[in-house]
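Dear U.,

Please find below the material for section 3 of the report. The protein was modelled together with fe (ii) ion; I have listed the sequence and SMILES used, followed by the predicted complex structure.
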Amino acid sequence: MDILKLLEEDHKRIVQKINRLPGSLLKARQNLDALLSLSEDLEKELSRHEKIEDLVFFPVLQGKVSDQSLQSLIDEHNESKKVRDLFMTAIAEIKSLGDTSPPEKIKEMSGHGYKLMRILSTHFTREDQLLFPIAKSMLTKEQSEDLWKQTQAYL
Ligand SMILES: [Fe+2]
Ligand SMILES: [Fe+2]
């Protein structure tokens, strides 16, 4: 295994989960627990994935990719985290209100879910199509081995 393979596999797995979001959002009232567990699962996956990128993967690309590109990817991680927090807080609020939760609350919560989908779709595309190919062409075998060693701390 190497870091690029791990990150690419993460993307595929996370996209599969993200694709279940619209259906789960539509059934939020009938099955809030399913939405809650999907959102918790996504949070766990994304926070680990972003940590590996921010702390291990992006630093090695400094100088190979413009600072601006790296910074905007880091900004997108922060934005994604902010929206995930709002999303999960809204779900918890609806759970505590139970059957009395007003439709606007559900709508607001769904809005966060859809926003998260949009952020991740752009973000993953940029990483898959721009960043990963650059990394693939520049990383030496030694660098890959070193990155993989560093990654272990987050697995
Ligand atoms: Fe990322
Ligand atoms: Fe990523």
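For the text of the report, you could mention the following: The chain has a mean pLDDT of 97.

Regards,
Y.
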